[in-house]
Amino acid sequence: MPKHIACLTFDFDAMSGLVSRGLTTPTPVSRGEFGAVAVPRILNLLEKHTIPSTFFIPGVVLETYPDVSRSVHHAGHEIGNHGWTHVPPANLTPEEEETALLRSSEAIAAITGRNPTGYRSASFDLSPVTAQLLSKHGFAYESSMMGHDHSPYRLRLGDVVDPSGQVTFGQECDVIEMPVSWNLDDFPHFEFLRMPNSIMPGLAPADAVLENWINDFRYMCETEEWGVLTFTFHPYVIGRGHRMIFLQRLIEAISDMGGVFMNMNDAVLEFRGK
Ligand SMILES: [Zn+2]
Which of 206, 171, 172, 174 has the alpha carbon at shortest distance from 189? Predict the structure, then answer.
């Protein structure tokens, strides 16, 4: 039976991603605050279409917004581990990374009653030891890598990347990778971000992005019997009016193509059972 799955994932970073970039003055903090305004809008839309989804929430955001975080769980959505702060693991020591990972799982379990099965790194940037830590601590899946578009695969341990360019792949482990792409992430398309040495223009017309995303899903339907496409949203980005309409139209288009919406944990179980 052909099956084409869409995983809608929401990284509820609030201000943590801006703070980790050194943007700590009142306006960027308020920009992140808008995420807490947007989450109820997103939950309403998902409920209207009976769509299960996955929210990745950093530990600091669980502490800043306990009620909003609990509302995600109470609405029936999965909560995955997104580290403690929003500093990418590639910028942490292995000890700091492991402490953050476990502390965050504990905070999620305090809401949901069980440890999260999935992990997504801040800024899609794993450290050389992340895969090892996830395997050691029994995570079922990871979702920050870009080695495929619509097929999960097994994460590798111990890849060696020589500065000369030679890459030696390590052994596959039991953790499933649920691949992502910057293309299928709302942030680079829509957010205007001015940093001391760079400007990310963002502010793309939603219709143009929508057409690309629908075509990525259509291509999967036309070329694969089974596949899963993962979309990444940030409440403070997607929660603006015209982008909420974009999200609604994406949901309708995927439904029209016969797509099935699943949270990531269920999509992983389905992949393992194939
Ligand atoms: Zn994030």
Answer: 206
Query: 225 C-alpha to center of ligand 1: Å?
Result: 31
**Predicted confidence pLDDT, tens digits, the chain (274 residues):** 679 999 999 999 999 999 999 999 999 999 999 999 999 999 999 999 999 999 999 999 999 999 999 999 999 999 999 999 999 999 999 999 999 999 999 999 999 999 999 999 999 999 999 999 999 999 999 999 999 999 999 999 999 999 999 999 999 999 999 999 999 999 999 999 988 899 999 999 999 999 999 999 999 999 999 999 999 999 999 999 999 999 999 999 999 999 999 999 999 999 999 8
33 Cα: distance to centroid of ligand 1 (angstroms): 14
Expressed as residue numbers, the domain containing 161 is: 3-272
**82 Cα: distance to centroid of ligand 1 (angstroms):** 7
Question: What domain count does the chain have?
Answer: 1
Residue-wise DSSP of 66-109: HHHHHHHHHTT-EEEE--SSSS-GGGS-HHHHHHHHHHHHHHHH
Q: What is the pTM of this model?
A: 0.97
Distance 189 CA to ligand 1 centre (A): 15
Q: How far is the CA of 152 from the centre of ligand 1 (A)?
A: 20
60 C-alpha to ligand 1 centroid (Å)? 12
DSSP-based three-state secondary structure for 48 = helix
Residue 13 Cα to ligand 1 midpoint, Å, equals: 5
**CATH number of residue 244's parent domain:** 3.20.20.370
